[in-house]
């Protein structure tokens, strides 16, 4: 008989392999030793407005009242077994993350059927929020300078995930690239990441956001790190031209979209963009996964080098401020 994916004791403690989660927070248990206990308590969190909705979660702004720290809390219902399993994968990844280009994880609390994943609050929202605000306000797309910086930081995050953690993110898209008013860019939502055994670099499961999925993944073939690079290519084109690059995409024309991604030549940037940027996107969207460069290779690409912080000073904080104003003008910012 299958073992249950977790056990929930009568005291409300949620236990799964290395984790023990209760109202007092998460404790990682490595063998007999308790590696870390975080002191966040649910009663100290004041849950505020909804920041966004995910496939199985609601993200709310929150304030930790004792310290007056702003946080983002992802609330997930855990009655459903698939969601629970997805969450546990997410927890495992988040828990061991400490890298400047990944959204930080503070804690995870469990109460009355819901998990509360406490994350760093990214007050600039996501690139998806910026895209919507740009469309609604009729503003221009981000400049190549901005897109270069976004590409560089996302590649740095992916390189860390792939090389150091042996993880495929599996859900790179504008909604999972977050911004803050300090001008930082971070990758979020590791809910769909799965730890990869370094000897077995393929994921057999099929979850994620189809529109940004690589041809090998949509084709049902094994996929790996290169799949995230494809998703980044689609994300960069969408941010540059202000619309999703595949014409069939209208949110529900799934089979036409699938056919375009699998059978058509990959999308490319128009001539108006610099040759370096066009080439970076071309490289990311190499249809043959074997030929597609890695995050590490792409960090050496001329377009990334051109937007190196030391060479091209850019006030990302100022850009995020403009985007925040745009989101307010477009009325997609939740009232605080
Ligand atoms: P999905 O499940 O679709 O990947 P999420 O549940 O992670 O999405 O997030 C949905 C939305 O909530 C994001 O697009 C973003 O606008 C907002 N959001 C998520 N995490 C944070 C955060 N840490 N800080 C601020 N906003 C966030």
TrEMBL record:
Q: One Pfam family of this protein, by short name?
A: Pkinase
What Enzyme Commission number(s) appear in the record? 2.7.12.2
Q: Which reaction does it catalyse?
A: L-tyrosyl-[protein] + ATP = O-phospho-L-tyrosyl-[protein] + ADP + H(+); L-threonyl-[protein] + ATP = O-phospho-L-threonyl-[protein] + ADP + H(+); L-seryl-[protein] + ATP = O-phospho-L-seryl-[protein] + ADP + H(+)
**Gene Ontology MF terms in the entry:** ATP binding; MAP kinase kinase activity; protein serine/threonine kinase activity
Q: Where is the Protein kinase domain?
A: 45-304
Keyword annotations from UniProtKB, A to Z: ATP-binding, Kinase, Nucleotide-binding, Serine/threonine-protein kinase, Transferase
Keyword Transferase carried by entry? yes
- Please name the SMART domains in this protein's record: S_TKc (SM00220)
Lineage, top-rank taxon, reads: Eukaryota
Q: Which residues bind ATP?
A: 74
**Kind of enzyme, top EC level?**
transferase
Fetch the InterPro entries from UniProt.
Kinase-like_dom_sf, Prot_kinase_dom, Protein_kinase_ATP_BS
UniProt keyword Magnesium present:
no
Q: Which family does it belong to?
A: Belongs to the protein kinase superfamily. STE Ser/Thr protein kinase family. MAP kinase kinase subfamily.
Q: Which protein is depicted?
A: mitogen-activated protein kinase kinase
Species of provenance: Chrysochromulina tobinii
